[in-house]
Amino acid sequence: MKNRFRPALAVAATVAALAAAAPAFAGKTLDAVKQRGTVKCGVTNGVAGFSAPDTQGNWSGLDVDTCRAIAAAVLGDPKKVDFVPLNSQQRFSALQAGEIDILARNTTWTLTRDASLGFNFTTITYYDGQGFLVSKKLKVTSAKQLKNATICTQSGTTNEKNVSDYFRAQNIPVKTVVFESFEASFKAFFSGRCQAFTTDASALAGLRNKEAPNPDDYVILPELISKEPLAPLVRRGDDEWFAIAKWVPNALIEAEEFGVTQANADELKANSKDPAQQRLVGTGEDLGKLLGLDKDWSFRAIKAVGNYGEMFERNVGPKSVLKLPRGSNNLWNKGGLIYAPPVR
User: Which N-terminal stretch is annotated as signal sequence (predicted)?
Assistant: First the structure.
């Protein structure tokens, strides 16, 4: 009985091995990116730590670095990115219409968005949660003390529904004032139109530091009322581009786990005998061909922006303007949720 199945199993194993070793076919998005010579990346109009231009128009942030890493992996140059600022209402239609190649705009991964808009979310790059910013003059220390408060937020986001669900569950009456643009919503709050402002906690930290008349006059309340896993997304129907957009950030996460940094990548490329490090710096097995890329794809990405921990530290961590702790965004083996499937 055992012998009857051995030939079939051997054939299946051979087919699987050949399929695993076969190079990827270039998808239409990758072809378009290479022909154009740039990656079109949809970003925010300006959220500190994630995507914001300086006075000279130079973009920086966690989402910006993700797009630069993809450009480095695909085109060999992290500068070959066209950043397209989009508001909440524009972001999805721009991706659907093909006006951008990837949307990296601190966007929450939800079932509705995943299943109904024709998109694939790639890799979670930041675990966030919705919170509340209030003036210290209000003398509240908890969101549960906001009874009858007026709360400013932006339309076209998950924030509006989260507020409604949270306070309905708590049986606390509040009044939500919705604005079409993010800027209009926080400016209304700082001008006194509302007693509280709500959005993702990471954005609240940036607004308090950058936009508040006096940052010390405002406090972020301790409650997080939602899960907001933020991830870039791409159009469905192009599996090759989806794989690239997924595995570049995964490689940056794994680079942190295995100690590959922007500074030591060259030295490890020359000398490392660690198989995991070798795969990341392009001296191990050639995984790039499976993505339609060359062997140095992840090495260039790491050299361009550093590993995930370096990106976090520079853009939103304790050394940044936001001064956010790693918390849930630490690596899985350091008490956090950041976890990449193996790059192998």
Answer: 1-26
Q: Where are the alpha helices (DSSP H) in 211-264?
A: 239-257
Average model confidence (pLDDT) across the chain: 92
Closest CA to 22 of 304, 305, 240, 221: 240
- Could you identify the residue written with the tokens 């009456």? 173
Counts for the chain of helices (H) and strands (E), in that order: 13, 14
Helix, strand or coil, per DSSP, at residue 71? helix
DSSP strand pairing (218-220 vs 59-60): unpaired
Q: Are 104 and 121 in contact (CB under 8 A)?
A: no
Residue 7 DSSP class: H
Closest-CA residue to 251 (of 329, 206, 307, 311): 307
Neighbouring CB atoms inside 10 A of 137's CB total: 9
Average pLDDT over residues 17-33: 68
Q: Which residues pair with 52 in a beta bridge?
A: 60
CA 187/CA 221 separation, integer angstroms: 19
pLDDT band at 14 (very low <50, low <70, confident <90, very high): very low
For 110-129, the pLDDT digits (tens) are 999 999 999 999 999 999 99
Cβ neighbours of residue 91 closer than 8 Å, sequence gap 6 or more: 42, 103, 105, 107
Is residue 85 scored above 60 in pLDDT?
yes
Percent of the chain exceeding pLDDT 70 equals 92
pLDDT greater than 90 at residue 148? yes
Domains annotated on the chain, with CATH: 28-127+230-334 (3.40.190.10), 130-226 (3.40.190.10)
pLDDT at residue 173 is higher than 90: yes
